## 1
Amino acid sequence: MGEAAITTAIATEPAVELKGITKRFPGVVANRDIRLSVAKGHIHAIVGENGAGKSTLMKILYGMQRPDEGEIRIDGAAVSFHTPGDAIAAGIGMVHQHFMLADNFTVLENVILGSEPRKGGLAVDFAAARRKIKEISDAYGLGVEPDALVEDLGVGDRQRVEILKVLYRGARILILDEPTAVLVPHEVDELFDNLRVLVREGLTILFISHKLDEVLKVADAITVIRRGTTVASVEPREVTARKLAELMVGSELPSPETRESTVTDVVTLEVSGLTMAASGHGPVQKGATADQLKAEGVRLLLDDISFTIHKGEVLGVAGVEGNGQAELVEAIMGMRPITAGTISLGGADITGWSTLKRREGGIGFIPEDRHRHGLLLEAPLWENRVLGHQTREPNVKGIWIDRAGARKDTQRIVEEYDVRTPGIDVDAAALSGGNQQKLIVGREMSGEPVLLIASHPTRGVDVGAQAAIWDHLRNARAAGLAVLLISADLDELIGLSDSLKVILRGRIVGDVDPGSVTPEQLGSAMTGAGEGA
Amino acid sequence: MSTFLDRVFGRVGFGGVMALVAPALAVVFAALVTSVVLLIAGHPPVEAFTSLVEYGSQPRVLVLILNLATTYFLSAVAVAVGFRMNLFNIGVDGQYRLAALIAASVGGAALVPGPLNIVLVVLVAMLVGALWASIAAVLKVTRGVSEVISTIMLNAIATGLTGWLLTADRLGVLSGNAIGTPPIPEDAHMPGMALIPGTPMKVNGFLIVAIIVGIGYAVLLNRTRFGFNLRATGRSEPAAVASGVNVKRMVVAAMVISGASAGLIGMPELLGSSFEYSLNFPTGLGFTGIAIALLGRNNAVGMAVGALLWGFLDSSSDALQLMEISKELVDIMKGVIVLSVIIAYELVHRYRIVAAQRKVSRELAAPAETEGAAA
């Protein structure tokens, strides 16, 4: 389809048109007067901070929620969706951020689940389904194998299965919700190739993301959402990532640069020879060194890791995800047993301590997955304040929970850390990701920690919250906190860290000077390709 | 977000009026369904219900209701302790039967005089219940055995074990054709209370114990560090681990508390009316406890109401027979109540979400109007 055809489509009838969509909603962000026009055959990106209202908007478009006001037009005709079924019937398909596939089913079974072709009234017509899947897969170059078992597929393949699933149901307009969040860089490129084929074949794609460089790479048009409303529609050729980010935030961008060094020569955390064997090798001799274990053919998750963090120092650990960062954090927190090595905190050997004792000893912990490890989603904020501090003032008095004390301190955190919430009695689940994270940061900074383990502290939070969290980390560091920073955001790592280590396959493979390294150099060091500077 | 099961087991709370509306709706709905059943069977429903209530409000029957409710409530608490942290102690049934048998034979031996013997019997029962429950806990924390499976199997083993122990050359004593443990001497009987005027029957003294257990349960769970850890583990085990909770220790502790509470279930019967463990000792109370814990969403007050309702239905079912209606109608009613309570809680949960949305949109709408004028 030529450029001219697309231009005509824009002029005549947009594939999707939203006029004045307003949705009021519990929590903090609602959609207000959303205006959006998506041309047929375009990849249209919708960008905005977390909590800006992107997801709500997509749910409205997919019939999962009904707008309080406004009009939705599909191919020029006004529609009203009551259920996702209505949206599917109108040719809209949604690929969720978290895949909804049954692992123990084949691709074919997953695709037809819920809309099985029938043969003779009862039997499932697998042959017809297989034929149709093959057709779709070939037409759009998805390369999906119908009889593969989903549990054997990689993340990128699973995503293609999800896309095929919606195409199978006749979707002409695809909504992709943060599709690259779970992908590694080369999978992202593959996805983008797939998307380009899809639009070439006449489909329309709504692409939700907050990764701006990716958006610029793939989108034909971009709409920016801020605080629940559309603030700008731009052409990707005309903007830079920085300009786009400023549109998202509505102000100048913060940067993670730290100022003068606050590193002292007092050692806070010392890790030496930390080794963790993978399970599944039978009993492993406790205390065996990494070399002995390797000689026995044991796979090591952490391989002889040693480092020290001083008072007032931020030590960054860079690495491609899955190279032992999570294990390192859990080992230091005492959540996973180690095979060998010692950990000491402020001179005391804490290797044998329980998680509780380590926390009481002054380790704060911002976990990687806040929903899984950081919060009780269905509990009120003040109970979440107690979590992880359930043996300490002001949350407890002896064996009793001190409700008044905990509530008062939660109020303090809400104010000092700018947690936007209607009150401290709302469930943590009601807050946006950034506000949940600010609550966690506030909690973990309470009780004067000496060491903070910050695992992806600004992942999935909006730019405003990110700047606030960076400020808090910097201030705490100036006050003498030692920080172990794990992050996938290279700018954050380089900007905040006083020293940087690169981890690869459970091993520290290099030291990098954050003062001189560029994100590109660091990125190649992480994959083992480059040399440690 | 909360799952359906979280809501069923009360790990997600909802407070205020709604906590009462849901079960009330369910009981009304159950009455309607039962009415239909009655009509199909050719009986007038209004008269049947009237006679249930009339019968159930006689002083004599009120005493029966309270006594049954005491037992049921203790059973529900035992189950609820586990439910609150995602532990399904299906073995309450076996725990209380074994506990009652061994406690009965200790009591019958009259090792200590008078009221001290009551204390001894109760402590032995709690200890045996706790030990029996801790088998499942140890299996879970050391070998990862699901407590559902192990407690169900332990129930079967408890049945075999009590049968084996209750023979003439072991703990049992033959009297005529019946076999039971030696009777507990009269000075160690739990004194009853003449609470209800108009009848010589007395309310079992364990009513007081049940109330204390209920208060203890509520305080333990809602006000203590231990209770916080227990609820946190139930809501999210990974978050509890990251916060420093030793989950294995919590599993053992919760099972031990659950088993110790289970040990109390047989006490009202043993020390208040039968004074021996015989083949007639009531069985299946542990499963009644599961139903009542569900009914009361593991909330102490809710479970007390549920226990009273169950006591009422059980005690007044005799009235139906006077009208030549099968007393099993009450079982239909109980089943429908449990099912409809679960549905009602779900409906109320959804209603609350909608209500909260309306409330927030009203609050958000006020400032939006001024901005809306410009747009």
## 2
Amino acid sequence: MFQPKQMSKLLIVASKQQLEPVITELYRMNIFHIDDYVEKGDDQWEGFRIGMPLKGADTTSSSLVKIRSIASAFGIGSDQLDESAKARVQELKRSIEQDLPALADEVEHLLSQRSKLEASVKEHEQKIEALKSFTDAPFPMELLNGYDSVGCIAGTVKSHPEISVPHEIWEKQLKSGLFITIAARNEDLPAVEKALLEVQLQKVTIPGENGHAPAIIADYEQKIAGIHQDIEQISVKMAEIREKHQYFLMSSEELLTADVEQAEAPLRFATTDLAFAVVGWVPTEQVTKVYENLDRVCAGKVYTTELEIEDLNDGPPVEYNNPRFSHPAELFIDLYSRPKYTEVDPTLLMAIVYPIMFGLILGDVAYGLVLLAMSFGLRSLVKGSDAGSQLLDILRNCSVASIIFGVIFSEFLGFSLPWAPLWFSRHISIGVAAGAEHHASAIPQLLVVSIWIGILHITLARIWGAQNASRMDHGHHRSLKIYANIGWILVMWGIIVLIWSKFPIILMPDLTQMPELAGGLNVATIAGAVMLVLGLVLIARENALDLMEIPTIISNVLSYTRLIAVGLSSVAIAMVTNFISIGMFINPALENLTPVGIILIIVGILIFFIGHVGNTVLGIMGGGIHPLRLHYVEFFTKFYRGGGKKYNPFGMIRRLTEQN
Amino acid sequence: MAAEAVAVEVAAAAASAAGLKAVGAGLAVGLAGVGSGLGEMGIGAAAMGAVAENKDMFGLALLFTVLPETIVIFGLVVALLLMFQ
């Protein structure tokens, strides 16, 4: 809790004969995070080189490429398949050898046939497009081509051309300008073209066809329909193949991916001619498992030992070690940065505080129910995506918190529930809710509550900042940093005590009545001032430039008032929507029911829906982003460093194939 | 007569005070919003670019983009205090 999983650094050394069994076993266990071997002329690793891939890696890779190309042509993804039936590895390997080449040829053949047919459809369509201009022509198309002494020009022009040489012309009115076809003797053609250029001729090529244009077009259209039928047949065949082979394709993709990863593993190992060595990380609780399993598969011919960890901060990969409940919040931490191995992991706290903040902002039973329904309804959309289901889990937790706060605030779509708010009320006097005296809002109190949340949150952040400094820094710098964090806490609380000693504030201790000491200053004022000065000194000892950041203490704490402010704006939008739709449209129309009144009621209902849907969307955005920002900006910047390596064990979780 | 006139004047003064409060609240939210928007304009554009280059930047980009929006929250808080206290 608040700490990543403990890791141990293992060194595995064996002779080259044990290379394959060791790789297979490590891959099967799926817990060994390999530290890639890099040749950097280190004395310790003198004589070691990066290894060569195992035999057969290239043929496996080429089969894998084939399978992936077929799968992408079919658009199959492994997450669409049922995972209950697992393919047997031996059978799968046999069918990859026997069936895959034929299947690949067939699919390739069908694909090329289809693209040929599609190309010919395009060609025919282009021809039809060219012929369309001639559909009204009184002459068959063959009359425009094949003369020795006469030439034809066709195209669109802006207006009727003035041509001085003998010619024959057919023209057709278009929306903008004319479509013309002109025939003239070859020696007159230059003069004709010149005249046409003056009316901005845009030439079209005259299609070399026989017969009248409409008949030719009909003929082509028939051909296109025929080709479409052929394409349809191919698609049906492809769908049949897909249906029949998709399971085989995806399971063999999984098998071959595993094979290729194993075959290429030696590229991450250090090898000599006869032996190999690999360094990696395993969760400490599973070290003995690695020892035992490797001993078993190599019949004792392997040397495994635990190495000392030199650099705790940057060495070990980081795997979260949190209760299941906080798993979704890991998404937010990863979005920011994975914690370093030695630092405090705030996931659990965020998993608890984030939904509470969301609930404080959105606190409305109806919106909460809508979001809860969404978090279950959208599950099928994110099937197979870990981040997606984490996000929906967060949404679920947040919507439950919203419902709880909705009950506390007595809010339902901006209306009040049959009871008075159990805590401070957020009801504002807008429209229909106006005059409900027992619901009088307690906004100053709520703002103070949010400031309290801020003070505690930031104090905790500084405490963790000191803890991180004590774990991660060394020497003189370490103690300075710890004291600086204490200094920040002292300055913040000093300012708070000073304010308390001067102004009485609701829901906060009133220190104005403390016994007075010299010069009209009471005990609390002096205590606050001492804390402030002491804090400033501690901060300045670490880095005097940090004193510039002192005003952020106030702005950071006040920033937490957004929890109430954003929430109130969503309450206000809900109430205004209710007021406009019910108070201004529906109620007046109901009092005196007329045909116009019915339309007004429908408009009122529409406004009601649109307003509340919009407010729900705003609520998700506001309720989601603001707490996230409070964590990232106000909370994390005080202690969190991040930049840890992700624990990425060598192996895979098999979904479609059996473990061999 | 005089008493009535005074009463009308007092009521008018109260109404204008309430009106000015509302204007002040509007200005607080509106101007703070414009300010935040201006601030986020440049950051947002740059953040988009950074995320397009490297998806891992998303968390940091979001952080930078939302930094100036505290200002509008302060505006909103001031408006709420003006209107409802």
## 3
Amino acid sequence: MDVATLFDDVKRMNKRQFLYQVLSFGMIVSSALMIWKGLMVVTGSESPIVVVLSGSMEPAFHRGDLLFLTNYPEEPVRVGEIVVFKVDGRDIPIVHRVLKLHEKKNGTVKFLTKGDNNSVDDRGLYAPGQLWLTKSDVVGRARGFLPYVGMVTILMNEYPKFKYAVLACLGLYVLVHRE
Amino acid sequence: MHSVIQRGNSILAYALSVLACLTFICFASTVFLNYVTDVKINTVKVVVKNVPDYSISREKNDLGFLTFDMQADLTPLFNWNVKQLFLYLTAEYETPSNELNQVVLWDKIILRGENAALDFKNMNTKYYFWDDGNGLKGNKNITLSLSWNIIPNSGLLPNIFARGSHSFKFPVEYTTSRM
């Protein structure tokens, strides 16, 4: 299939058919969005799937591995769990393990984290003056693991041109291809 | 007529779906397994000091020191979907200011294929046993327990408590001498 025949298809379409293609493209985009938002509701986490971006949890998690998170408020944070948290002034959430935890009678909890592959705890990574994490910093708790799959998004983020090329190809294919 | 792109596409799609199917079988074959075994923990030497924790503030906090014995055979926990065990020894206790304190004192990564029959005598802790205040001196009930976080090739990431824990008490006097 070369480019000329691709556009022949478009030429042979009438207005209604072209509109149908655009609509089906919209369906794909919106169902992807619905799945993502639906996962957010089911898991209680603002980002239910994250890609591991650093080697600080090696050898458990490598760059490009995929983690599935939940963040149910009734499930308490406990030591040894892998939490994904955000720190003020850093865009990228961090995936590390809870090392110490202190919970008061009224339920307020503060905890300290550390990466398995790091030799010191995370106080140096937190915002200046921040000594502990609290529940509000947590994006989710790691519950499931799938290796390598996130490599695609790492590639896309590191090579934006590759991302646009892939998106353009997919979009063109859906718009132009006739069922 | 099948072009090179079509052939490549179908080979890739087939390979990916076989891989996804195998991954799911790998996950499903181990998801209901029981990963609990016995462990023997004992403390050898226990002292408590009252020294400033400069990583938090200049105020003096209780700092516990202990050495421990531990025997466990974790070889049966490994199967084809266990990439790594993350062992951690937790001290759990209650203080007047905090209802629940959990401090990880020691941890260890065991990869599949490494020796998983543990027999430690008079081990030092890996992390400092700082309390969040002065709740260690004379504390009558500190529970040491071993847990593990199973890192699979793909699947869930359960945290499991071993059967068998050890409770001990801290001395009622601070130790002032160097150790």
## 4
Amino acid sequence: MLHTLKMLVIAVAGLWLGLAGTYYAVERGEDGGVGTSFLFGAVKAGPWTGWPKSGTRDADPYARALYARNGETPLGITEGLSFLARADSSGAPLNPACDYVLSGAIPPARFWTLSAATPHGKPLPTSSNRNGFTSSELLRSADGGFEIQISASARPGNWLQVNGGQPFLLMLRLYDTALSANAYSVVAQAMPSIVKEHCR
Amino acid sequence: MRLKDPVGNAAFHTLPWIVGCLFIAGVVHIGSIFAMPRLAPQDAFARISTLAQPHKVVLLPATTPESGAPFDDPALAQGVCRYDLSQGPVRLRATLPPDALMLISFHARHGQIFYSMTDRSATHGKLDVLLVTRQQLDAVEANDPEDELPQDLRIIAPTQEGFLLFRALAEYPGELADARDRIQSLSCGLDKDAKP
């Protein structure tokens, strides 16, 4: 009798543990996505992380479960690659009270976009209703370089508005890029850096 | 009869139970991860099914803080064409303007992307794609003239149902309406030439 009861308790505990693990893996947490950090096949380059395999036939089971749970439609591998940053180049989490400068190289792509999103991946609500930037809009300096100011208050030049009070993450999407699923090693130098300026 | 407890502590008795519990947890975890694409009630196909009838191009709502799927790009206009191959092959035809980014991906029922392309896959700005099942492909090929190559791109879908997702880039914020027009100019529906 005691034995059966013990077995039942173990079975229920095992079931609960297993489902809790699944929940933890596919439910994006408040900090901006516990789930994604568990996916296999992540490519890290500086502050950026991408999942090039998620848009192929070889997407891993965790990626498939996560996308099914959230109703997401990742980019197919021929369409492009997307990268996500939750921290700056020093590794500190992006702080909505701080200004950042994004600069450096962007891997070759026909078009790219940079946008600010909430930790759950929704476009960040801003007073200007603008929360993204396309490669066509970018103003370059005379030497071909560029800087994008990420700030809650207006900046001259390339300004990506964020919302002072709301946590955000950055998404860089490379469309029609020469980087393929096989080019797994996106070197950190080829991706733009995100450097913290002053904080309020 | 009870086994002798050589260590004389509780660990000897509880260890097998812990191992058993972890084993069950592992099986449940892996099983539920693999089952998720089939069981998730709010996957992309479910979302799109409520918005779009099969075999026509339907624009999706703009990506704003209030609407759209997570991690979508607000600079893209999006449209879908649901397919149900049990009714016959589906044809996608498009005339695409040069140098305007159009992304096309083919999604199976349970989230798998089985093909993707951009406007650069078009020859002289024209795109002609036939989406078929394996059996339908055999029937189509049987009707092909023997002395010429087929002019369309034929893609086998792994599931009978699914959707095509079209994404057009608005290079500047004011061009979102143009991007939506480019999606609406696509033609997607049951193939009229094909015999059922």
